[in-house]
Amino acid sequence: MKSPRPDVRYPATVVEDDGTRVVVRAPWAGAAVRDFGFVRFEAGDVFTEYFWRDRWYAVKEVRAADGTLKGWYCDVTRPARVTDEDGGTLVVADLDLDLWRSADGRLVLRLDEDEFAASGLAERDPNAAERAAAALDELEELARHGGFPGLTA
């Protein structure tokens, strides 16, 4: 869920759910190519997505159709929850902050900090805003110092 936009929904295959971390795999769900300048998401790309019920972020490993690792796209979110809706729905509230780490680890980018500031979350829910900022800092620290193997293993 990303307010005020409508929910983004897409089918995914559950790879693992240990009660705390949920791992799903899904093809790129966008209708068209999305070129960020530093990476392109396109038909055939496969996302292995790691969500936590007790953390304020999600880590998404992105691979091209041929299996080549493109990198990791990380979303700062409220902790994930799973509902019984439609046989099981993973629900995640996106908080605008994102991070990209290229496959070789040379490029680490904090993204959408302007959207986060403009969202008004700091005024509406200062605690959530603090948790979101701390989550982005944690992701950046991990990305710059070895990546995400501790989270994605």
By secondary-structure content and strand pairing, the structural class works out as alpha+beta
Residue stretches low in confidence (pLDDT < 50, at least 5 long) are none
Strand content: 35-45%
What is the strand arrangement across the widest sheet? 1-2-5-6-7-10-11
**What is the terminal separation in angstroms?**
26 Å
Keywords:
153 residues; alpha+beta; 7-stranded antiparallel sheet; two-stranded antiparallel ribbon; 4 helices
Can you walk me through this structure?
By secondary structure, this protein is α+β, with helices and mostly antiparallel strands. 22% of the residues lie in helices and 38% in strands. The mean pLDDT is 92.
Short description:
The protein is α+β, with helices and mostly antiparallel strands and 153 residues long. The protein is 22% helix and 38% strand.
Topology of helices and strands:
Blueprint: E1 13-17, E2 21-27, E3 34-35, E4 40-41, E5 46-52, E6 57-63, E7 69-77, E8 81-83, E9 89-91, E10 94-102, E11 108-111, H1 113-118, H2 121-124, H3 126-144, H4 149-152
Antiparallel strand pairs: 1-2, 2-5, 3-4, 5-6, 6-7, 7-10, 8-9, 10-11
